[in-house]
Write a structure and sequence with these properties.
- By secondary structure, this protein is mainly α.
- It has a domain at 6-75 and 185-253.
- The chain is 50% helix and 9% strand.
- It has a three-stranded antiparallel β-sheet with strand order 3-10-11, covered by helices on one side. The chain has a two-stranded antiparallel ribbon with strand order 1-2. Strands 4-5 form a two-stranded antiparallel sheet.
- Helix 1 packs antiparallel against helix 2 (48-73), helix 1 packs across helix 4 and helix 2 (48-73) runs antiparallel to helix 3 (186-216).
- The longest helix has 53 residues, at 328-380.
- The chain binds zinc ion (ZN) (2 copies).
- The site of one zinc ion has 6 residues, from strand 9.
Amino acid sequence: MSKPSPLGAKIAGLILPVVVYGLLGYTWYIYIFRICGYLLLNKPPDNTAQAVIFIVIASFLWIMALLSYTRVLFTSPGKPSNARTPHSTEESNQGLVAPINLPRYYYSPKLYNKSTMKGRQIDVQDKMDIMPVISVSRQDGQPKFCHMCECYKPDRAHHCKECNACVLKMDHHCPWVSGCVGFRNYKFFFLFVLYTGCYGLWVFVSSLPLVVTGIRDMNADLDPQWIVIIIIAFIFGLTVCGFAGVHAYYIIRNETTIEHLADRPNEIRVDFDMTGQNFEVVSVLVDDNLWERKKMENWVSVMGRDPWGWFFPVRRGLGDGTVFQYNDYMFNTIVNRAVKQRQSMDASNYQNSNNAQEAQVAVTEYEAERLSSIDSTAHMT
Ligand SMILES: [Zn+2]
Ligand SMILES: [Zn+2]
């Protein structure tokens, strides 16, 4: 299946939100007024209590789906600041023996605040024990740069062709929400699919007995709209609930859709000091999830600390979307591999220089021999 063109995606992005609001509005109207209204008015038997419970549950799920959708629609996924300079604090460090000249975005456990989930930049007060720091880079160790947005990409940011912008912790481009799902609106997107899926399944399950009875008894009151809504609720409820399950799995693994589907290894640059010249690049397998931590930590990083806040589209997750806490095991593995890589390179350089010295000695000896033989030949003539 070919990808839609940017224009096609733009048109879909304008139409699909109308479809979503339309479907939510239509299904709620039919469910409340035609199904629950029928239960309330059609006596005996007295179904008032059942109808009220149905109305409360469906309306709660519906309102939450609607609010979450509106939030994801009107919340930017987050973009990196447009800054061309690759280095973070070089301007403020003039006069230092070793100026800080690192890539713009980097991570080290010693620089990371676990309560705010934000990393900080190295400053002049810091000693060398703050090193090493690591960052996602290109194969040659240079920071990833987006030529369209003219900015250095933070870890986990990607350029979206449809939006023509770099997106922080990009998950995917979604025409249903008319844009990208990324760092700032991912929680709202997850709540939207969760509540919409639950709403669809609830409408289906609670309407089914009424519709089945109506069809079986050839009930004259059977409303064709009941059948329409039950089909819509079934299809959307099942597929969207499945989608919510997939994203719940991504959240507790701390990975995005892009990272889950990626097939190329990550190149990680390890800086040993602050000069920006002393680094190694380590290749990390795509299955090694760099940012996966304990399940609850992963969950909190997206859904926030307050358990009440998990259920409402009010506050997004923690951090600033530019630096992410690495898995401790992966951090240590990467640094150890970089150190070994450096040691083996030093050893081979040493070997090469020894070989070069030996070769130089051999050449000198050969040259001396040759000169002396020329000399003795000259004496003989
Ligand atoms: Zn870009
Ligand atoms: Zn996009």
